[in-house]
UniProtKB/TrEMBL annotation, chains A, B:
Signal peptide: none
Keywords: DNA-binding, Repressor, Transcription, Transcription regulation
Record GO biological process: glycine betaine biosynthetic process from choline
GO molecular function, one term: transcription cis-regulatory region binding
SUPFAM superfamilies: Homeodomain-like, Tetracyclin repressor-like, C-terminal domain
Biological role: Repressor involved in the biosynthesis of the osmoprotectant glycine betaine. It represses transcription of the choline transporter BetT and the genes of BetAB involved in the synthesis of glycine betaine.
Organism: Shimia thalassica
Start and end residues of each HTH tetR-type domain: 11-71
Pathway: Amine and polyamine biosynthesis; betaine biosynthesis via choline pathway [regulation]
DNA-binding region as annotated in the record: 34-53
This protein's name: Transcriptional regulator BetI
Pfam families the record matches: TetR_C_6, TetR_N
Length: 197, 197
DNA sequence: AAAACTTGAATGATCATTTAAAAAACTATT
DNA sequence: AATAGTTTTTTAAATGATCATTCAAGTTTT
């Protein structure tokens, strides 16, 4: 309890501020949002954010880390019950359109992060790592599903499709329908794989 | 000649500065790039940009307009010689991966513009107009190629795929291979349409 | 000579970040 | 369970840096 007590406020603030960052970036844009605006989302001050995160860049990094972990969790959950290679491919697709993850605010933050990642070392690193992870999952699952010559082309097509869906989701004015996105993704994957051999 | 002369320098600067904007945004990022950096790309000063474009926002808008026009031109050229609906669909796809258009710097500017468009009225307008145009082209060509029930799903899939390819291209460190991108796009479109009925 | 163009030096606004001092939460002791 | 001491948290105000934009005085072109 002693230790827990020490950590509690810090953890609460950490979560609050990351949530506030996603909301504020969605409202005002990654480039335009100020520390004060983020702070106001949860009724605190910019100085407080610096107390907990040090810099704006760290805050953005921590926010992106939360999204990456959300994606990873969604993926591992589905992986745990997948039996066949096809199941596992669908697990990867579905994870990307998980209810908890596939929201306008999340896709929007992701898109804006993506656009500015190349210009900030710490963000570029996160981006690279995640990209490599998704790619290797796709490669592994496609190995036993499509012939060797077409594998990379199909993997790229699938990844581009998914990125494109997020991009569109990021601009949406209405709430997203994650279940529908999963169906569409399966349909598209089905078409791409059906004739690939 | 008088009139031409009057316009010449203005036109040259206009072109130079738009090119400089694309390069500088690629180097430094849409959010981080300064007027001075853009000016330095062509050895002039920030004040000069303001003389010609008034504001940074106008400059960005003009830059995006050039890309939009490049895309439109590439499309119309190919449309002119397309005979069948299938030809016209391929024309739309190929235009998006035209040699003049599909470069890292262009895709990068496009991506960054895309991410920040929702937060600036004039840019949002451009974005909306372009999006509507591409969508209506796809709808028109798919009308006679795929059954009614699947048309929207396939159109969305194709558009998302193309957006995703741009997104990846924007991050590339090597020069792009536009011809290869066109081939891939045809291959993907082929798979999507083949089994859709 | 007039118009168009250029630029170095202000201007003024906006921000992230730091500081210092106060408030709150927690711990240990009695 | 009250209290004094310690650490953690909060914030208003200062700091300092960065920029887009404007200005005014030049230069070049027509």
């Amino acid at each position: 309890m002693l230790f827990m007590g020490r950590q509690r406020i810090r953890d609460i603030r950490h979560d609050e501020l990351i949530t506030a960052t996603i909301t504020a970036v969605h409202k005002r844009g990654y480039a335009a949002v100020t520390m004060t605006e983020i702070a106001q989302e949860v009724g605190t001050t910019a100085a407080s954010i610096n107390y907990y995160f040090g810099t704006k860049e760290n805050l953005m990094e921590a926010t992106m880390l939360r999204l990456l972990n959300l994606l990873k969790t969604a993926m591992l959950e589905r992986y745990a019950t997948a039996q066949t290679p096809r199941d596992r491919l669908i697990a990867v697709l579905d994870a990307n359109f998980d209810d908890r993850f596939y929201t306008v605010a999340h896709c929007n933050f992701w898109m804006q992060f993506w656009a500015s990642a190349p210009y900030t070392d710490s963000l570029a690193r996160l981006h690279r790592i995640n990209r490599a992870r998704v790619t290797s999952h796709f490669r592994a699952e496609l190995r036993s599903l499509v012939p060797h010559e077409r594998r990379e082309a199909l993997r790229e097509a699938l990844q581009c499709y998914m990125d494109g869906v997020w991009l569109e989701a990021a601009q949406s004015t209405a709430p997203l329908n994650a279940a529908h996105a999963r169906e569409e993704a399966r349909y598209v994957a089905g078409l791409l794989l059906k004739n690939s051999d």
